[in-house]
Amino acid sequence: MTAGGPPPGLSGHVGQDGSMSIVKINVLTVPAEQREVLEKRFASRAGVVENSDGFEWFELLRPVDGTDDYLVYTRWRDEAAFQAWMEGPMKQAHQGGGDRPQPAATGSTVWTFEVLQQTGPKSEG
Ligand code: HEM
């Protein structure tokens, strides 16, 4: 789709066709003793999301300021692309590997944002 172009984060396409990317952040509250479990689950994550239409970016963010909140940052072409993932591949993406008698997170909240501006570092030379 953007073969040969810059990665999505640097493509500067926001607003060009009247639409803008959206960011969906899943906030996972993970008690200290469950951190390792959670990180291992993500380490063996399904890798499904990267094949979803309209998917642009994923980051797992570990808290370092003393909170228990991990952020699962995802960015999508639009709300419809995110909803399609939620209704389909998301289930497979959340099967992970191995037994899981208990979820590692004690809570989760989804935050939604529109990307209003974005930039990357200026390339040198
Ligand atoms: C009850 C709520 C949720 C919990 C506890 C949760 C937890 C997890 C865990 C532990 C994984 C690692 C894979 C696995 O073990 O299944 C994962 C994968 C993932 N989660 Fe969630 N999740 C939740 C809902 C969501 C939502 C609403 C989003 C949307 C922003 C999301 C985005 C992702 C993505 C993008 C991956 C990687 C999938 C892949 O590898 O293809 N999660 N989640």
Write the layout of secondary structure elements.
Layout: E1 22-29, H1 35-43, E2 55-61, E3 69-76, H2 79-87, H3 89-93, E4 107-114
Antiparallel strand pairs: 1-3, 1-4, 2-3
This protein binds protoporphyrin IX containing FE.
The site of protoporphyrin IX containing FE (HEM) has 23 residues, from strand 1, helix 1, strand 3 and strand 4.
Largest sheet descriptor: 4 strands, antiparallel
Terminal residue distance? 27 Å
- Which ligands are bound? protoporphyrin IX containing FE
Low-confidence runs: 1-6, 9-13
Per DSSP, the total helix count is: 3
Number of domains: 1
What is the CATH architecture descriptor?
2-Layer Sandwich
- CATH C-level: Alpha Beta
Q: Which quaternary structure do these chains form?
A: single chain
Explained architecture:
The protein has 125 residues and is α+β, with helices and mostly antiparallel strands. It has one domain (19-114): Alpha-Beta Plaits (2-Layer Sandwich). Helices cover 18% and strands 25% of the residues. It has helices spanning 35-43, 79-87, 89-93; strands spanning 22-29, 55-61, 69-76, 107-114. Strands 2-3-1-4 form a four-stranded antiparallel β-sheet. Strand 2 and strand 3 (69-76) form a beta hairpin. The two termini are 27 Å apart. The structure holds protoporphyrin IX containing FE (HEM). Protoporphyrin IX containing FE is lined by residues 24, 26, 28, 38, 41-42, 45-49, 58, 72, 74, 93-96, 103-105, 108, 110.
Task: Note the main attributes of this structure.
Dimeric_a/b-barrel; Alpha-Beta Plaits; single chain; 4 strands; 125 residues; ABM domain-containing protein; alpha+beta; four-stranded antiparallel beta sheet; disordered N terminus; 3 helices; binds protoporphyrin IX containing FE
